[in-house]
Amino acid sequence: MDPRPHDPLIDALRAENEAMRSELELLRDALERIPHGMCAFSGDDRLVLANARYRKIWNLPPDVVRPGATFRQIMDATPGSETDASRSRPQPAPGTEGTRSREWQLDDGRLIEIVVSRRADGSCVALHEDVTEQREAQARISYLARHDLLTGLANRAVLREELERALAGNRRGETLALLCLDLDRFKPVNDTYGHAAGDDLLRQVAERLRGCVREIDVVGRMGGDEFTVVQRGAAQPEGSTRLGQRIIEALSHPFDVDGHVVHIGTSVGIALAPVDGDDPETLLHHGDLALYRAKSDGRARISYFEPAMNERIDARRGVESSLREAIELDQLQLLYQPRFDLRDGRIVGVEALLRWRHPQRGMVVPDEFIPLSKETGLIVPIGRWVLEHACRDALPWPPHVTVAVNVSAVQFAQSAVVIDVLHALADSGLPARRLELEITETAMVRDPTTVLTALHTLREKGVRIALDDFGSGESSLSQLRSFPFDQLKIDRSYVHDMPDRADLRAIVRGVITIAEGMGMQTTAEGVETEAQLSAVRDLGCTAAQGFLLGPPMAAEAIAALLAGA
Ligand code: C2E
Ligand code: CA
Ligand code: CA
Question: What pLDDT sits at residue 477?
Fold first, then answer.
């Protein structure tokens, strides 16, 4: 006989108990498996349960984390402290219902995030997560978003922000300079030694730039080989002039790229705030315009923004669209300026100078459209047109008179110039020795090998080669040795100052002596006064050209002058 009566109620309770136990087991098991640390406190702040992960995250011994332990006891054993950022976060008032999130920094560098949900009865459940790696990844991402990957410099977006910030300071009377630079001769390095070498060079440039600035200045890379520096807290413009010079000097020393010795260099355009603009957009634009000017002035120059640069750009935009049609619409014209032998006063040569008869703007001088035609490549068809017309016009002139045509670097770069010259000579019937090409030092510096090859080919055919604007750039004397020029044209800036400056006369006398020794003729350009004329004659120039002796004139006028002479 069964001593205990079979009680269905007890059975039911037992079964329910069994079910609850297994449910609790299941919950405990789940708790141990979640990736978070978890703990729960009762309304009187005593620990109800916690999983192993919780102890592990905080490195807490099991005897501390035991059911019934008070919140205080556990907190006393908990390492680290709440971060400032967490403390300053807005939170619901302590003891009220709701969710709080806090962040703790441990001494070993780890960062723990805690999300506490408190219920109305005062009990609470907290989830703990080690977010160290997550935060590091976030920091890395935001670093990458703010820095140029290659060089570690500020990127374009950050530079804009920095400018914005600096300009705000500016409004309180601080000074600010924006320096824009891009590298000379970077492309050849990239093309010759490959992109990895180019990248290496950019990193080295970034390093040198960092070495030029102070802590509060910001160096950025805008992309490609373009860099910018925001200079703050210096007296302007002296501060930016000094910094610009420092940068030019720093980048002028050779670089070691993959075992190759590489020479680059830079020009610097500077815009000052607030005079040149008080928002980042305007300032960057004006810095670029100044840079453009610095580069066209020659290498290793500093140029400050001037309002006239803006007007020039506007004018250029209008010019570009109509320049394309200039040849077809027969709007180009050559003027001819005579060059006189200083011993007998005879005209020995004539220089072809291009004009554009613009329907609205009238006669446009080359300085306003040659630079643009170089950039757009239009100089190639225009240069071809000049060669054809100059050779044709010169054919009937006395046989000892040469015609000089200006040729720019871009025409050499596309190797069109040799073919164009030979065509022009063949088509017109002009003997090669009566054609003289005038080339500037800038062209020689930019791409020496291509230019020299073309010049040698042309000279073998009998064409004469003159070095134009001698003395307007730098490195003049070294250029003389690179090619056996027939003629040296001394820039009008030298000629202009010659009567008043003994030092200039001494330099030019030296140059003329060297030129003579090398069998070159010398022409003084831009002679406007009798004083200049007698100065250049005394120095031993073989020829002169200028408004005093004869201005540029139409083809018919020069033909008449030559016929009468
Ligand atoms: P450049 O080769 O130095 O030409 C001499 C410039 O000086 C000419 O200006 C001429 O008009 C000017 N000039 C002549 N005598 C005097 C003088 O006594 N005083 C002053 N202040 N100036 C004088 P232009 O015709 O405006 O030409 C400017 C430049 O444009 C030229 O400088 C040359 O580099 C370029 N250029 C002209 N025609 C051509 C061309 O057909 N092709 C290319 N690529 N460039 C050209
Ligand atoms: Ca010339
Ligand atoms: Ca010249």
Answer: 65
Residue 260 lies in a domain: yes
For 376, how many CA atoms within 13 A lie in the half-sphere containing its CB? 17
Looking at the structure, do residues 378 and 439 belong to the same domain, yes or no? yes
Give, using CA atoms, the residue closest to atom 41 of ligand 1. Answer: 354
Question: Residue 341 phi/psi, 5° resolution?
Answer: -70, 130
468 CA distance to ligand 2 middle (Å) = 6
Structural domain of 116: 30-134
Residue 433 and residue 523 share a domain: yes
In a domain, 221, yes or no: yes
Geometric angle at alpha carbon 381, from 380 and 383, rounded to 5°: 65
pLDDT 10s digits, 373-427: 887 788 989 999 999 999 999 999 999 999 999 998 778 866 679 999 999 999 9
Return the residue matching tokens 């049609």. Answer: 325
CB 222, CB 295: distance < 8 Å:
no
Identify which of 353, 355, 369, 405 to mutate to test ligand 1's pocket (most ligand atoms within 8 A of the CB).
353
Q: Tell me if 276 is assigned to some domain.
A: yes
**Whether residue 152 is found in the same domain as residue 77:** no
Query: Is the pTM value of this prediction over 0.90?
Result: no
Q: What per-residue confidence (pLDDT) applies to 165?
A: 85
Distance between Cα 474 and ligand 1 center (Å): 19
Count how many domains the chain has. Answer: 3
440 is a domain residue: yes
What is the Å distance from ligand 2's center to 404 Cα? Answer: 8
- Which residues have C-beta atoms less than 6 Å from ligand 1? 337, 352-354, 365-367, 370, 383, 386, 406-408, 438, 468-469, 492, 525-528, 546-547, 552
Kindly state whether residues 405 and 353 are assigned to the same domain: yes
The continuous run of DSSP H or E covering 206 comes out as helix 195-212
Query: Whole-angstrom Cα distance, residue 172 to residue 546?
Result: 53
User: In a 3-state reduction of DSSP, which class is residue 322?
Assistant: helix
Residue 247 belongs to domain with CATH number: 3.30.70.270
Contact 77, 101 (CB under 8 A): no
* Closest C-alpha among 167, 166, 142 to residue 155: 142
- 244 CA to centre of own chain: 14
DSSP letter string, 390-429: HHHHHTTS-TT-EEEEE--HHHHHTTHHHHHHHHHHHHHT
Same domain, 436 and 519: yes
Q: Are strands 37-41 and 47-50 parallel, antiparallel or unpaired?
A: antiparallel
Specify the CATH number for the domain of residue 383: 3.20.20.450
